[in-house]
Amino acid sequence: MQESPLVNLLSIPENIKKIIYTACRTCYSADYPINIWDKDVDDEKILKLIDKVLSSGHYSTVEHCQIVFSVSGVSRACTHQIVRHRHMSFSQKSQRYVTEKGQFEYIVPPTVKDTEMEKEFVQFMGQISEFYGKMIEKGIPAEDARYVLPNAATSSMVVSLNLRELIHLANLRICTKAQKEIRTTVKQMCELVTEKEPWLSKYLVPKCKKLGYCDEFSSCGYMPTK
Ligand SMILES: Cc1cc2nc3c(=O)[nH]c(=O)nc-3n(C[C@H](O)[C@H](O)[C@H](O)COP(=O)(O)OP(=O)(O)OC[C@H]3O[C@@H](n4cnc5c(N)ncnc54)[C@H](O)[C@@H]3O)c2cc1C
Fold first, then answer.
1. Which residues 6+ apart lie within 8 Å of 190 measured at CB?
2. Residue 217 lies in a domain
3. Does residue 225 contact residue 216 with C-beta atoms inside 8 Å?
């Protein structure tokens, strides 16, 4: 049984600040982008310009930075929410090509864990696993036997997205209105990025921090609704 999401950062551009700076500066400079790129500029100046441009909403300048993660040990319920984001790319473990052997891995939601429902939940996963195994034994292909697998079954994916989409993902999914599992997963993604690029922590925030108010029907209390 998987305990928590396992998120790893596979790739992020080394020179992410310089890429964004060059994109931003190119918009306002008569100089060629290659000359802007080649020039030594101190971090303070770079971050000041990036902040100014992003504060004006010119987010296309951060679309040049592609970031790749691996995500494992999350439920299909969680990956289904992640794949709703249309500016991300995915390669997900196939339930057609990978036949489950024995008990499939699954997530017990925290609201079920350590409650009277946990035992029944675990038993039910066992029953599903048995029935799935029976179908495989009878020659039903995995692509059809998978119809009985639950949202709790774990999955793995390689996910890539540009920085604009990561900021958007964080704005929506770090919000306490998002479900716990996807919130934890996206938080881990953001933490891995800010370990390398601490200056990004300012942007990888729930949307209320960006807006200055909560635009959900009801607020969690962190920010008032408009
Ligand atoms: C708390 C919460 C609850 C949710 N509940 C539900 C639910 O009950 N049912 C449900 O179906 N979904 C639900 N969702 C999913 C939600 O509706 C979105 O599908 C998901 O969050 C992806 O967000 P997005 O469309 O902004 O972002 P992305 O797909 O990541 O796109 C980023 C941005 O690009 C632009 N964009 C992308 N595609 C288009 C397009 N075709 N046309 C114009 N602009 C585009 C938009 O500005 C969009 O915000 C929920 C999400 C959250 C966070």
1. 166, 170, 174, 200, 201, 204
2. no
3. yes
Residue 3 has pLDDT above 70, yes or no: no
Residue 167: name the closest of 62, 15, 25 by CA.
Answer: 62
Catalytic residue positions? 173
Pocket of ligand 1 (CB under 6 A): 84-87, 165, 168, 172-173, 177-178
User: In the chain, how many domains are there?
Assistant: 1
Please say if the pLDDT value at position 205 is more than 90: yes
User: What is the mean pLDDT of the segment spanning 60-85?
Assistant: 98
At 4, is the pLDDT very low, low, confident or very high (cuts 50, 70, 90)?
confident
Contacts of 177 (CB under 8 A, 6+ apart): 216, 220
Nearest CA to ligand 1 atom 24: 85
Q: What's residue 226's pLDDT?
A: 81
Residue 41 domain flag: yes
Q: State what percent of residues in the chain have pLDDT above 70.
A: 99
Residue numbers of the domain that contains 170: 6-70+155-211
Tell me if 207 is assigned to some domain: yes
How far, rounded to the nearest angstrom, does the alpha carbon of residue 76 sit from its chain's CA centroid? Answer: 14
